[in-house]
Amino acid sequence: MSPYRLVIFDCDGVLVDSERITNQVFAAMLEELGLVFTLEDMFEQFVGHSMVYCLEKITGLLGKPPPEDFLPCYRARTKAALEIQLTAVPGIEQALDSITLPYCVASSGDHEKMRLTLGITGLWPRFEGRLFSVTEVKQAKPAPDIFLHAAERCGAAPDACIVVEDSPAGVRAAVAAGMTVLGYAALTPRINCVQPVHIACLIA
Predict the structure, then answer these.
(1) 175 to each of 32, 145, 162, 164, 204, how far by Cα in Å?
(2) What is the pLDDT of residue 46?
(3) pLDDT tens string 143-174
(4) In sequence order, which residues have a C-beta less than 8 Å from that of residue 189 and are 6 or more positions away?
(5) Residue-wise over 144-161: b if at least 16 C-beta within 10 A, else e?
(6) What is the C-alpha to C-alpha distance for residues 198 and 186, in angstroms, rounded to an integer?
(7) How far is CA 84 from CA 126, 146, 187, in A?
(8) Distance between CA 196 and CA 93 in Å, rounded?
(9) What band does 179 get if pLDDT is binned at 50, 70 and 90?
(10) Is 115 helix (H, G, I), strand (E, B) or coil?
(11) Residue 176, class by beta-carbon neighbours within 10 Å (0-12 exposed, 13-18 middle, 19+ buried)?
(12) Mind listing the pLDDT tens digit for each residue in 7-60?
């Protein structure tokens, strides 16, 4: 019998294959401001963090805030790119079909972004009503707030939760919350990798 009572998924990079797309847009916009980042740099410095954190980091690098239209333009450009290119992470639908435990999403993104990405990929019906955003808590990952919030809302003790994450910040947040973590790293070797199709076996 599984000791777990809840599976908590990160969204970007775990459920939807969005991170390469959004970071390509982000890197292009940063280059327009005079900040040059490779895609690897983007994953190292920005992935897994909230937009508030990212904007604060950009402000520090520029020595001033980015233009007022930076965030609206980023959202518009990523939306256009996602609508054309976005797919679900390979194997995630089969994994979700195999999991018998309750599951939810705890993301560093806002609800609008989750509705967009999960809607495009057809995963929205699987998670509707069980989506938790960093905008609902005081501190973003790597603080444990979002995972503790999701567990509390779903009625599960932290030590009975298993988290599926793809970023170091997310892994640190889950560990700080006292939860078990499975790392998914399809694009870069940032953390130990587990494929979605193996998730159900690991929590059985």
Answers:
(1) 37, 11, 10, 11, 21
(2) 87
(3) 999 999 999 999 999 999 999 998 888 999 99
(4) none
(5) bbbbbbbbeebebebebb
(6) 13
(7) 22, 30, 20
(8) 9
(9) very high
(10) helix
(11) middle
(12) 999 999 899 999 889 989 999 999 999 999 998 888 888 887 888 889 999 999
Angle, helix 51-62 to helix 70-85, in steps of 10 degrees: 130
Structure tokens at 80: 């256009």
Contact 104, 6 (CB under 8 A): yes
Helix, strand, coil in percent for the chain, rounding step 5: 50, 10, 40
Beta strands in the chain (DSSP E): 6-9, 103-107, 131-133, 161-165, 180-183
Distance between first and last Cα of the chain = 7
What's the CA gap between 194 and 191, in Å, rounded? 9
Instruction: Give the model's pLDDT for residue 62.
Output: 94
pLDDT of residue 64: 95
Q: What is the pLDDT of residue 193?
A: 46
Separation of alpha carbons 16 and 184, rounded Å: 12
Q: Would you say 61 and 76 are in contact if contact means Cβ atoms under 8 Å apart? A: no
Residue with tokens 């994450």: 165
Sequence-distant (≥ 6) Cβ neighbours of residue 158 within 8 angstroms = 147, 148, 151, 177, 178, 179
